[in-house]
Amino acid sequence: MPSTLNVNPTDAKPDLTVLLSAPRGFCAGVDRAIKIVELAVEKYGPPVYVRHEIVHNRFVVERLERLGAIFVDELDQVETDRPVIFSAHGVPKSVPETAESRDLFYLDATCPLVSKVHVEAEKHHSEGFEIILIGHAGHPEVIGTMGQLPDGAISLVETEQDAQTIIPKNTEKLAYITQTTLSVDDTASIVAVLKSRFPAISGPHKEDICYATTNRQEAVKRIAEDCDALLVIGAPNSSNSMRLVEVAQREGVHYAALVQRASEIEWERLADCKTLGITAGASAPEILVEEVIDAARKRFSVTLKEIAVTQENVQFKLPRPLTE
Questions:
Q1: How far is Cα 135 from Cα 86, in angstroms, rounded to an integer?
Q2: Is omega for the bond preceding 23 within 30 degrees of 0, making it cis?
Q3: pLDDT at position 5 over 80
Q4: Which residue range(s) make up the domain with 241?
Q5: Active site residues
Q6: pLDDT per position as a tens digit, 51-74
């Protein structure tokens, strides 16, 4: 009998349902900060200097560099006749003071919701309150907020353990503020400890954690129970992006990972995945979400479903010099 030729037909792509979390990606503060850089280059011509990353995303930073932005660590790297922009995370008061002493023209791209926390800190301080800041040491936003007041006026608390052990000077004149990009659940636990220990502690009239951080975490919670894995598109130095990974893990997602680009995805970890969640931190552009979906389509037969928990329509005004 003739031998049988074994032919391996091309395997069909495995099915994959992608749950696209919404809201995701750019928030109003990030969108405003990027527009400030774009409009400054357009109005004043290149180069325009930016102190630190305007937002925590290399894709965004590199695009702005191509337009004519130069990112620097400190103001002594800025040419005196060129504009300088402060990042969305906010800066200590010493930074604009230094700029003014050097006659630098500057634009402040600090997110208005971060500025709100700065105003709260100054108000508490003027009323004689000792201030506790809940946040992550070394984060630019925390550095900027603590730098609004004299050294020692604000004490940093990062964990529940910190909240259990901090010893204020006057428990009757105590207030707390928070970084805007924290885990909602972690922060609530820390605040509960502080309120338990110091019943008279004052908090913000409106939650300091920004609407975008809260919405993106709620959106991840909505899809988490249906996901075998979840990818967060964002930068490792982006606080709000890292919190999304933690939220997914806490909600029981088997594999949750942060990726900056599709090229970083560990596809072998998704080999048995049937339902993949995708979201993006508040400083990640939608084009990177599309890049990840396109990469998934090369490997899977993708069914895309967007799951939205709310609609966002927040907009912030641009600095007056750019609109005159």
A1: 20
A2: yes
A3: no
A4: 15-26+211-308
A5: 141
A6: 999 999 999 999 999 999 999 999
